[in-house]
Amino acid sequence: MYSSPSAAQETSASLGDSASMTASGWVPSFVRTSASAMWKRSFDMVAAAVLVLFLLPLLLAVSAAIWLDSGGPVLFRQRRTGRNGTIFTVLKFRTMTVAEDGPQIAHAVQGDARVTRIGTLLRVSSIDELPQLLNILQGEMSFVGPRPHALAHDAHYGALLPHYGDRFAVKPGLTGLAQIQGLRGEIRVLDDMSRRVDADVDYANNWSFRDDLLILLRTIPVVLAQKNAY
Questions:
Q1: Strand, coil or helix: 173
Q2: Is residue 122 within 8 Å of residue 24, measured between CB atoms?
Q3: Is the model's pLDDT at 21 over the cut of 60?
Q4: Nearest-angstrom CA–CA distance, 220 and 172
């Protein structure tokens, strides 16, 4: 897919090649079948519903902790780009004192003063992402796919990275190929985002339901390691 092998390609190869080459380019074999899409969506619906019920006490406790810590809204809402460019509102537990959703949004950095006390714990543990289970139930996200970025970041990096828009061929996810490769955290230089986009595009071109399950399993040690999470 690229002129030279990338880490994203190597990881994808280790998970299994699910695409075939045609005259028009890469065509994901599992995307071509309605059965694969049905399996993916069925898994998303059932797993998300079970997790919401199972984690309900934790969700309520976190909501109370946020309100007691800093007051204000418990949930953070921000517009993101979904499959085929559809705009949706992503849900997160609020971890900052601001709720930016405009033309300019600063990336979170290590020691960010905008992060609340409880927000630090939520971000490091990735618990702040749990409300996105509701986005999955609504069909706006999947468990596995490219992480959705703020619209301002889509516009900025879309103008700089030619393949950026290819990420939108699939639903965004709670985790993805980029995340299990450790491509998360602060964006210091353009190459930080470029490597993430390469992994996202590689996933979009080659995904399979089996690989989704493997990515989910490999996400667990990544979350526990808490590397580049702040």
A1: strand
A2: no
A3: no
A4: 18
pLDDT class of 54 with cuts at 50, 70, 90:
very high
* Pair 20, 105: CB distance under 8 Å: no
Residue 172: which of 95, 34, 98, 78 has the closest Cα?
A: 78
Find where tokens 């995307």 sit: 31
Say how far apart CA 121 and CA 101 lie, in whole Å.
23
User: In this structure, what DSSP letter does residue 130 have?
Assistant: T
pLDDT tens digits, 109-140? 666 778 888 888 998 889 999 999 999 999 99
140: tokens are: 């706006």
Could you tell me if 215 and 175 are in contact, meaning their C-beta atoms sit under 8 angstroms apart? yes
> Which residue from 118, 109, 120 is spatially nearest to 192, judged by alpha carbons?
109
- For residue 18, pLDDT beyond 70: no
Q: In whole angstroms, give the CA distance from residue 26 to residue 193.
A: 23
| pLDDT recorded at residue 51 | 97
- As a dihedral over the C-alpha atoms of residue 41, residue 90, residue 57, residue 94, rounded to 10 degrees, the angle is 160
Amino acid, single-letter form, for residue 144: V
Three-state DSSP state, 147: coil
Greatest CA separation found in the chain? 59
Indicate if the pLDDT at residue 2 is higher than 80: no
Distance CA 166, CA 201 (A): 6
Rounded Cα gap, residues 181 and 227, in angstroms:
11
